[in-house]
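Components:
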Amino acid sequence: MYREQIKVLDCTIRDGGLINKHDFDANFVKSVYRAIAASGVDYMEIGYKNSRELFSDKEYGAWKFCDDEHIKRVSDGIESDTKISVMVDVGRVNLDDVKPASESPVDMIRVASYAKGIDKAIAMVNHFVQKGYETTINIMAVSRDQGPELDEALHQIEEESKADIIYVVDSFGSLYQENIEDLVKRFKKIIKTKEIGFHGHNNQQLAFSNTIEAIIHGANYLDGTIYGIGRAAGNCPLELLVGFLKNPKFDIRPILDVIAKEFIPLREKIEWGYIIPYVISGIMNEHPRAAMALRNSDKKDNYREFYESLVNIGLE
Amino acid sequence: MYREQIKVLDCTIRDGGLINKHDFDANFVKSVYRAIAASGVDYMEIGYKNSRELFSDKEYGAWKFCDDEHIKRVSDGIESDTKISVMVDVGRVNLDDVKPASESPVDMIRVASYAKGIDKAIAMVNHFVQKGYETTINIMAVSRDQGPELDEALHQIEEESKADIIYVVDSFGSLYQENIEDLVKRFKKIIKTKEIGFHGHNNQQLAFSNTIEAIIHGANYLDGTIYGIGRAAGNCPLELLVGFLKNPKFDIRPILDVIAKEFIPLREKIEWGYIIPYVISGIMNEHPRAAMALRNSDKKDNYREFYESLVNIGLE
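Structure:
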């Protein structure tokens, strides 16, 4: 598949950081940045921009806050065309913490929002556009909130927001390829002046195939993470995506190197990927919260009881 | 997805046995049989029927030969509607070893063949039909042999063979969903009097999504293995397939139980699944042979060198 407009965004540190409270050390993040830059991937999302009024430095690592100095420390001196992105959640960022783009190493700010919080997301995006950033709105949990509120949110985005890209986010890893086709078409029908993106979760080993499906139906912004790292089951493995895209600007080899050097050892220390409670959450279209708690308990491999607890939610 | 004609075949022991020379002990195979029977899965493929003139009992376990007594030992006394299948490779079975179906615990024999060996496969299948078995022809490596020889083989099968089901086999785990659509349609255009099946490999985490794609385009026989076990990257995880199919005859819970009890510990001892050299083989549309050899060497995580060795095959 080769389409010039396609852009790939690596969110290894940002989504992977949801496993370890964003406490990656600077050398690790530098290795990732170097690999991403060398592979020709278009964007690297390096963490969240969260307010220190809500989260403490004592509890979280640097990539929960993404201070400009931290970003510069891992990126300065490395030759790169890769742009840097940070994510913000509606209501969790102090807008005064964000300098104008011209004074910051950050190029893009992505605003994560549920369909129902779209007013605030639009206001934030327009604020960041004013400050000179590329912006996206990532609509989370579209496997749940597919009623008329989704169309309303999309119309409002198209009419009122200055975001460049609108993402379909399969937060629970529960969507199948037919759903992706329907959703990308539905987004494109309403969003005519912006690009469509896709961010998958890998609970059912569908993050990569759903990304391909999104490409087929016209999404041009695609998220992946190295070795599939990310919360719970993780994301679309970047190496698969780069292997699939035939654009000669990409080079898979630096990604293979950093997997061998950094991610194989890391996977021995923290877990993500194909883990049965996350599979069950995906099948059930549930947030992975309960499965993550299970994995931290002494019942971590009691799959049947966990399955039945989700089946019976509706019966309580 | 619910379609009454859909049948699921578990090939845990047969394809998983390619990792350990089919040397699973009887208690393990009995646990798998009990789980498969309780889950309502239609078939369980328990191994290969190979000639002892070609392979030795000293080197291989019982499921390389599938003597009737071995099968009875693990299945007798368990209430079950699950039929038992064995696989044969063209040229590796002694036909005299195969009793008439009425005297055997085996219900189905699947003949694996490349498109170019189809004459022999058809002769074998017709022999097994004569003896009273359900039969399939599994056309291997369709990602490689897609020229006119494939159409010729399909025409010959349709006209000369009495096989019940013809399988598309993605031996190298290299096919994307668009290829699956094309191949299933191509098979169905020629094969009008038999069912179509699909057997995927999981090198690029596409075995499950490709199975869904095959279902969408009309394949009714679907292979899976528990926890995705199988040669190299393994196969479509049975638990995902059963979770997707909404047929009330299936129960995912016995599969979840046997994963916790048997497959989590087994995975500590032998490896299959998402392993980078298998990813590379899949992307390159190569047999996993070289990647399997790499994993048994001291270069097992030297991905770049392995990648370059495959890229350069064409340049030698």
